[in-house]
# Entry
Amino acid sequence: MMEYKGYYGVVKYDDEAEIFHGDVLLAKGAVTFQGKTVEELKQAFHESVDDYLAFCEESGIEPEKPFSGKLVLRMKPELHRALAVAARREHKSLNALINERLAEDYGVSA
# Structure
């Protein structure tokens, strides 16, 4: 995965065309890039992100953030109940408990 200005690109290799192609991770819209070498790929990724940001600015729209911090999560009612009970026992909100546990698992701050 590639990162530039807070945006992430996922890359695949097309063996038949002998080219790398990638997509910038956005919830809506498609921003793509491609290259035959790693250097070409990096340059194309940076240009795609810069072009996207310039387009948004020229159009007067807010650029989509790759990750908003909001997540809709579906789970079994039994898990929901167990988490809610654990949060209550620890005098925390359910949101705080889930954030802390996931942060611990993935080594990031909550």
About this structure: The helical segments are 38-59, 77-89, 94-106.
